[in-house]
Amino acid sequence: MHLISLSPMLASGALQFAFEKATPEGKTTIGALAVVSLFSWTVIISKSRQLFLARRAAKKFFAAYRAARDPLEIFRSKQEFAGAPVNEVYYVGAEELDYHLKNSAVQIKGKAKITHASFESVRVGLERAVGAEALALEKGMIVLSTAVAGGPFIGLLGTVWGVMETFSGIAREHTASLTAMAPGVAGALIATVVGLLVAIPAMFAYNFMVTTIRAITQELDNFTTEYATQIEHGYVDNRSLADEITDALVRNRSLGATKEEGLESVLS
Q1: pTM for this structure?
Q2: Where are the domains of the chain?
C-alpha cells in the first residue's frame, strides 16, 4: 500500500502527468526537442562507429607502415586500410610521388628520384589530404553542439511559455489555488526536463568526440611530417649544385663519346 502511494512520484508517472497537462505550445516545443534529439542520436551513433573504425584501422596501418622499409611499399603492394584517415593521406602522397617518378624523375646512380619542385607538390598534396580528412571527421559535429547549446534554451522557452499560459488562465478564472496552478506548472516544466535530456547526452558525446578527433588530427599531422621526411631521404634529389654540375658534365662526355664511336663505326 505504501509503494502504491509512492507510484505517482516516480519519474515515469510524473513525466506522463506533466505531458498530459502541457499546453499545445509546450507540446510543440517538446516535439521540436524530439526532432533535435533524433538528429543528435543519429550523429552520436554514426560518428562513434566512424571514430571506432578509424582508430582500429589506423593501428593496423601504422603496424604495416612501421614494418615496411620503403615509404612506397604499402602503395606498391596495394594494401588497403579502409576507414583510416591516415590511409587516405598516405595514398594521396604515394600517388603524387609515383606520378613524378614516372614523368619527371632524374636518374642518380641508377635510381629514380624527384626534384625539390616535385617534392613540394607532394607536400602540398599531403597537407590538402590532411585538411580534407579533418573536415570529414568533424562533419556532423555542428548538430551535437547545437543540441548542447540550444536544447536547454528551447526547453526553457517552452517552460516560460507554459507558465505564462498557466498564470494567464488563473487570472481569467480569478482562481489562485495550488490545485489550479500545479497541473499547468508541471506541464510547463516538462519542456525544460526534455531540453536537458536532449542536451546532456549530446554534451558528453561532443566532448568525447572532439577529444578523439583532435587526437586523430594530431596523429595525421605527425604522420605527414614523418612520411614527408622519409620521402625526402629516399626519393628526393639532394645533391649539391657542384655535384649536379659534375654529373651533368660526366653525362655529356659519355654522350659525346658515344656519338663519336657511332660516327667512327659509320665511316669505317
Answers
A1: 0.78
A2: 12-237, 241-268
